[in-house]
Amino acid sequence: MRKLTILGTGFAMATKCFNTCFFLELEDGSLFLTDAGGGNGILRQLEVTGFDYQKCHHMFVTHGHTDHVLGVIWIMRKVADLMNKGKYEGTFHIYCHDVVKEMLLTMTKMTLKKKDFARVGTDIVIHEMKDGQSVEVPTAKLTAFDILSTKAKQFGYCLNFADGMKFTCLGDEPYNEHDRVYAEQADWLLAEAFCQYKDREVFKPYEKNHSTVKEASELAEQLGVKNLVLYHTEDKHLDTRKQEYSAEAGKYYHGNVYVPDDLEVIPL
Fold first, then answer.
1. CA distance 139 to 75
2. InterPro entries, per this entry (predicted)?
3. Using CA atoms, how far apart are residues 132 and 253, in angstroms rounded to an integer?
């Protein structure tokens, strides 16, 4: 059974939950990681889940903001260390756009041990993706797409599985019509929802180029999405977030709504 494990649900400056990132467990048992938060806290999050690095050979990085890319350095260090100890077989593939690729190469060259950095480019391969480009990953076809961010360049992706399931990650900014083909009629849509609509004057989501629960839910309804996962939120209402966000989403969207907590597992 496919599973989605949410490693973090919070925005960049969240202190009460981890930054937004997650991994998929695919039907063949392999793991597919997306983003890694803003530091080595990613190692703890993965450890708590029982994450098996040997089963993870593919990762997607959406963009170069601190809360998404800095943890990737720690993942690369961890994998390189495992390789050097003979505890990781095969190649670790990272998919991202050109800006993130350059960031990862620059930061790892500056910060990793020489023997760890020596793995980059040979056993740890960073693949530069173009808008609309597809590659084969275990059990699915991965297609990257530019979300046309008004801030930093950012890509989302769509996974199309052999059995017809369509899984789409929109990144952490509002939807752009450029990407309709990847999001429309998705079985699973992962979308940011910074706060409730009633709290928009408090958290100022539009100033940060983010959406509220209302907009994300209206989008999912419009696109005919079956299952909607809301994350990348403010962290001031964690005790009531699941209940309140789900209730607001239900006013605008008639599919299944998931407002996960950190480390929550969702069967797909």
1. 23
2. RibonucZ/Hydroxyglut_hydro
3. 28
Going from N- to C-terminal start, the domains of the chain cover 3-267
Residue 75, pLDDT score: 98
Q: Enter the CATH code of domain 3-267.
A: 3.60.15.10
Strand ranges inside 77-207, DSSP E? 92-96, 124-128, 134-137, 140-146, 155-161, 166-169, 188-192
Residue 22's contacts (CB-CB under 8 Å, 6 or more residues apart) are: 4, 5, 6, 7, 8, 33, 34, 35, 190
pLDDT digits (tens, 9 = 90+) for 1-28: 899 999 999 999 999 999 999 999 999 9
- In 10 A of CB 180, how many CB atoms? 12
Q: Where are the alpha helices (DSSP H) in the chain?
A: 41-49, 66-84, 98-111, 114-117, 180-183, 200-203, 213-223, 238-249
Beta bridge partners of 140: 137, 161
| Model confidence, pTM | 0.98
Q: What is the DSSP string of 32-64?
A: EEE--TTSTHHHHHHHHHT--GGGEEEEE--B-
Using CA atoms, how far apart are residues 145 and 134, in angstroms rounded to an integer?
9
**Where does the pLDDT of residue 67 fall: very low under 50, low under 70, confident under 90, or very high at 90 and above?**
very high
How many residues are given for the chain?
A: 268
- pLDDT tens figures, 133-156: 999 999 999 999 999 998 999 999
